[in-house]
Amino acid sequence: MATRRPLSPHLTVYRLMHTMVFSVLHRATGVVLSVALVLLAGWLLALAAGPLAYARAATLFGSPPGLLLLLGLCGAFCYHLCNGIRHLVFDTGRCLEKDAARRSGSVMLFAALALTAVSALMMLRLRGWL
User: Fold this and answer.
1) Cβ(104)–Cβ(130) under 8 Å?
2) Cβ–Cβ < 8 Å for 89, 104
3) Cα three-residue angle 69-70-73, rounded to 5 degrees
4) Which residue of 79, 86, 88, 111 is 20 to 30 Å from 46, comparing CA positions?
């Protein structure tokens, strides 16, 4: 005779909340940034390989799709950084109430978007497009 054990609630039981979305995005940006390390290693290898290899890498990363990729990686980094700081605040026992967590999520998202925008403006200015 099998014992009847309670079943774990399925994902469909829970209502999607902003904290869940922020958590999933934090994990996803961590994975994206880990994969981006391969690109960084490739760029560093091209730098070490000499002027011709570096010129190819610079052309690739300087093209519009390459710049868009770098902007996306910059956005992922800014989001992951700001949300990581938010989690450090949570670890101190602060902002754990529902309203405070919602406010800190809004502040974190605004800060990540602002950092990404400032980085994009700096990139455009360095390239001479502004």
Assistant:
1) no
2) yes
3) 90
4) 79
Number of domains into which the chain is organized: 1
Residue 84 lies in a domain: yes
For 8-97, where are the alpha helices, taking DSSP H only?
Answer: 18-49, 51-62, 64-91
pTM of the model: 0.86
With left for phi above 0 and alpha for psi between -120 and 50, is residue 94 left, alpha or beta?
A: beta
pLDDT tens for residues 29-77? 999 999 999 999 999 999 999 999 999 999 999 999 999 999 999 999 9
What's the CATH code of the domain at 117? 1.20.1300
The helix (run of H) or strand (run of E) holding residue 3 is none
Q: Quick check: is 5 in a domain? A: no
- Examine residue 13 and state whether it is found in any structural domain, yes or no: no
**Any domain includes 11:** no
Decide: helix, strand or coil at residue 117: helix
Q: Take residue 35 and report the two structure tokens written for it.
A: 């994969």
